[in-house]
Design brief:
The chain is of the alpha/beta class. It has helices at residues 41-48, 65-77, 96-104, 106-109, 112-122, 130-142, 145-157, 196-199, 201-215; strands at 2-6, 26-29, 58-63, 81-85, 167-172, 187-189. α2 links the parallel β3 (58-63) and β4 (81-85). The protein is globular, with a radius of gyration of 16 Å.
């Protein structure tokens, strides 16, 4: 079974370097494609899904924004399982400041290069090991400011109240971007932050293996 991994905002497949899947599964990374002007998250997700062979059994793993993309794909194509990492299944799981940011249209005002620089600086004070910090800083540097601006707006405008079947929503108890208290996770990683994909990979790999074996 192919397992399609979708990374988060300002990230790519490098953030998944510590994750693996059980024997009999194959990892396929869905790289970001350029968005169409004013495109919705749902429309973008379905264009991204054109790379998926939906005629055979498959699974989705989405990190942060990638989880929202995975939800939209799952609503149409019904994968064997959809696994969210540090993400939300519905827009009512967003924290209150997301709604404020949307109301104020802050994504149109913030200089994206400043946002990227702040994200790189933040990595100096987070829990990833030194090698992972280097990778994350490079991932952020490589990200496209135009894509980031579109993506932030698309996330803030996203509306969804449908939870697909066979959903595994795995969330860290100390997620600083999408706080645990706002979400309804099926599984909690204690002391996991928004980047638990790197800092708690051993715990995540156990859950990934369980989910993919159950639903393969």
């Amino acid at each position: 079974m192919k397992v399609y991994f979708i990374s988060g905002l300002a990230a790519d497949h490098r953030v998944f370097l510590h994750l693996n899947v059980p024997e009999g599964c194959e990892i396929v990374y869905l790289d970001w494609i350029p968005p169409v002007r004013n495109e919705s998250l749902s429309s973008y997700a379905l264009r991204l899904a054109e790379s998926i062979d939906t005629k055979e059994n498959f699974a989705l793993v989405g990190l942060s924004m990638g989880g929202m993309i995975a939800i939209e794909i799952a609503k149409k194509y019904a994968p064997a399982t959809t696994i969210l990492l540090s993400s939300v299944a519905t827009n009512d799981q967003f924290p209150a400041h997301f709604k404020l940011a949307y109301a104020l249209k802050l994504h149109r005002l913030l200089p994206m290069q400043v946002l990227k620089s702040a994200s790189i600086l933040k990595r100096l004070f987070t829990l990833e090991d030194p090698d992972d910090k280097v990778i994350l800083r490079q991932v952020i540097r490589d990200s496209d400011p135009n894509f980031i601006r579109w993506a932030i707006g698309a996330i803030l405008e996203w509306k969804n109240d449908v939870v697909p079947e066979h959903l595994w929503q795995i969330h860290g108890s100390k997620d600083e971007i999408l706080p645990w208290r706002n979400t309804k996770p099926t599984h909690t990683i204690q002391n996991g932050t928004h980047m638990m994909v790197m800092t708690k990979a051993a715990d995540l790999n156990k859950l990934l293996k369980e989910a993919l074996i159950i639903h393969s």
